[in-house]
Amino acid sequence: MKRRGIFIKVFIYTSIFIALLVCVTVVVFSQQFVSFYNSSQLQQITNSYQRLVEELQNSPNDQLIGKALAFHESNQSFEFFIEGKDGSILFSTPNANVSKSVNGTLMVMIHVNQDYTLRANSTSGMGENFKGLAIKALAVLALMLMISVFGALAFARQMTQPIKQLAQLTQKMANLEDVPKGPERKDELGALAADVHYMYGKLKDEIKKEREIEETQAHFFSAASHELKTPIAAMSVILEAIDNNVFEPSEVPEQLRLCRKMVEEQGRLVGEILGLSSLETPKVDLQAYLIKDLVESAISPYLPLVESRGQTLIINAQDTLVVTDSSLFQKAFSNILLNAIQNTPTGGRISVFSEERESSSRLCVLNEGARIPEELLLKLFEPFFRQDKSRNRADGRSGLGLTIVKRMLTTLEVPFGLENAESGVLFWMEIPVCVEIE
Predict the structure, then answer these.
(1) What are the Cα distances from residue 162, in Å, to 11, 12, 26, 157, 249?
(2) Are 179 and 200 spatial neighbours (Cβ–Cβ below 8 Å)?
(3) Tens digits of residue pLDDT in 46-88
(4) pLDDT of residue 437
């Protein structure tokens, strides 16, 4: 069954309501009109016979007939009769209805004296006037109903047009089509349309983020499977060779130690993958910390590695109070620092310093003597990406360090960047400062 559109419903309901309102108004005012018309007619009839009544009241009873006949001769359109108190007719005009029950006309009773009463009917001219007024009233009623129908039509169109447009837009939104924002309205429909467009924008953003996450996860799992598959295949070949006595007995312990090292590397890699997976929905505990304390706490475990490589680590972090999650921050900063140590030449210098901004503190890590091709800067944040393809897992690099950094800083909503500086490679992050409430 075909559904009725909202325009038809609004038009029908509005037309019925207006028609009922017009009918009730007509009924109420018609009663008042009829009452007023009858009163007017009675008053007019009474005034018409006032001169005759005065003459009859001032004349003896034997002259009543003569006075009535003389009045009738000068006013032949009037119909009346004079009745005695016993019901006898003293005088009657030729066309007067003496039955005392006249349908459709008004009858006025005027007392002449204690013995006689004058009864008069409404004239035909008055009836014609009433008929003409009734026709005009019906014409006005028809015109009012017609105007009401056209008014209901215009009202229904005005009310339903923006709703229909909004319904069409939401249908396009459901199909994820591009929907331009329509003209602004200052009423509830305008507010509803604005809210729908806002929700649609948020939905598109969420869908975009979801697709990006799906693509990232697909790429991640593809890379992870490759990273895990290669050493497993290598171990399988070694163990199969041992089982088939390919190696000399003296070479077997060395091959087993190599397999053990691969297993340890795989375990570490799996641990990093699991750690990265746990960052999908991390709990963030924002508190105020001195940035200097956070940096020194994260750097201390890496000081022996810096000394062993003959590198110089310069720290110039200020005593600025920032708002962050200490656990997530230190994990991210540790990966940044380790990446800087590994990519700084032996005997090189690494600088860690902070700069005050308007509403944040920029923490920077600069490893001098390094350089990254511009086309590779963004790719370094991809899972398992290595700038130097000749390096393998033996150098302790899994290719997940900067991926973990990106995930943590994005969770903390901390802007960051990696760029080439004049003296080396600079990694920076903007940590919001703590606002003191007076």
Answers:
(1) 15, 18, 35, 9, 87
(2) yes
(3) 777 778 777 777 778 778 888 888 887 877 777 788 888 777 8
(4) 44
* CB 28, CB 35: distance < 8 Å: no
Q: To 10 degrees, what angle do helices 50-57 and 6-48 make?
A: 30
pLDDT tens for each residue of 212-254: 666 666 655 555 555 556 667 667 777 777 777 777 787 778 8
Q: Tell me which residue of 411, 412, 427, 404 sits closest to 269, measured CA to CA.
A: 404
The alpha carbons of the chain give a radius of gyration, in whole angstroms, of: 53
Fold designation for 284-432:
Heat Shock Protein 90 (3.30.565)
For residue 322, what is the DSSP state?
Answer: E
Scanning 244-314, the segments in alpha helix (DSSP H) are 252-277, 291-299, 303-308
SS3 373: coil
Lowest-confidence pick of 336-340, 374-378, 416-420: 374-378
Architecture of domain 181-278: Orthogonal Bundle (1.10)
pLDDT on residue 393: 47
Q: Token pair for residue 230?
A: 């290669």
Return the domain boundaries, the chain.
1-176, 181-278, 284-432
pTM above 0.90, yes or no: no
- 5 near 147, Cβ under 8 Å? no
Query: Token match 């509803």: residue?
Result: 192
